[in-house]
């Protein structure tokens, strides 16, 4: 019988990062359990995208990052992907002149033929509306369908943790729900999701836990079923003198 809680899938300790001499993140601590949806919220410029880039190795950083028990603090983005940590970057663009199928297939570079074919089908199965357009060029997809394609590109690697940076940006409410529903489906299949989202209410409804980031530091960590969370978030975002309402 295990006597302690299972080890976190992702454990980030004392992580700092920035751009050249510009420091952005200051000593971030964050954990994600296997199969958990964690929302990362915070105002514009707080450092949310920077944190995802630092975790996935797209930016140099200091501090410790373990993933699946393996130290990935010093590894680059390719090793992180191979370990099962996949990052769909903010404003991810698909190859508009290639077919839907080829876009997903390209994202599976390095996977061997038969496995690649299976994984492409598996990824497309999450989004029947784009699977039906597999032979069409991506340019013919709506904005929401292109977001689904971007997520499908991440899924082809069968991640243990998928980090989505504002997957709903620019989408209509119906398509937002459709893209976020994929995150719930992933959790049901045992995949953890770290979701950066501006739509706070929707993110809180979906996620198991939430972190709020402000000015490069974690200012709140909570389970999403805790009382008074919207108020606490507002204070975390704007400080004690908060008077501006939260956008949602
Ligand atoms: N390539 C870059 N070079 C220099 N500074 C950058 C760069 N990208 C972001 N920054 C700065 O780092 C800080 C954090 O930016 P980041 O993009 O991580 O914020 P964010 O929380 O993702 O914001 P948003 O909600 O607008 O996406 C900001 O002050 C931003 O100006
Ligand atoms: Mg961002």
Question: What's the structural blueprint in terms of helices and strands?
Answer:
Blueprint: E1 10-19, E2 22-32, E3 37-41, H1 48-56, E4 61-67, E5 70-71, H2 77-83, E6 85-88, H3 100-107, H4 113-124, H5 128-131, H6 143-155, E7 161-165, H7 173-188, E8 192-196, H8 200-206, E9 209-214, E10 217-223, H9 229-238
Parallel strand pairs: 3-8, 3-9, 6-7, 7-8
Antiparallel strand pairs: 1-2, 1-4, 4-5, 9-10
The structure holds adenosine-5'-triphosphate and magnesium ion.
Magnesium ion (MG) binds next to helix 1.
A few lines on this structure:
With 248 residues, this protein is of the alpha/beta class. It has 9 helices and 10 strands.
Could you please describe the fold and organization of this structure?
The protein is of the alpha/beta class and 248 residues long. The protein has one domain (10-238): P-loop containing nucleotide triphosphate hydrolases (Rossmann fold). The chain is 35% helix and 25% strand. It has nine helices and ten strands. The strands form two sheets. Strands 6-7-8-3-9-10 form a six-stranded mixed β-sheet, sandwiched between helices. It has a four-stranded antiparallel β-sheet with strand order 2-1-4-5, covered by helices on one side. Helix 7 links the parallel strand 7 (161-165) and strand 8 (192-196). Helix 3 (100-107) packs parallel to helix 6 and helix 4 crosses helix 6. The longest helix has 16 residues, at 173-188. The N and C termini lie far apart (44 Å). 39% of the residues are buried. The model is unreliable at 240-244 (pLDDT under 50).
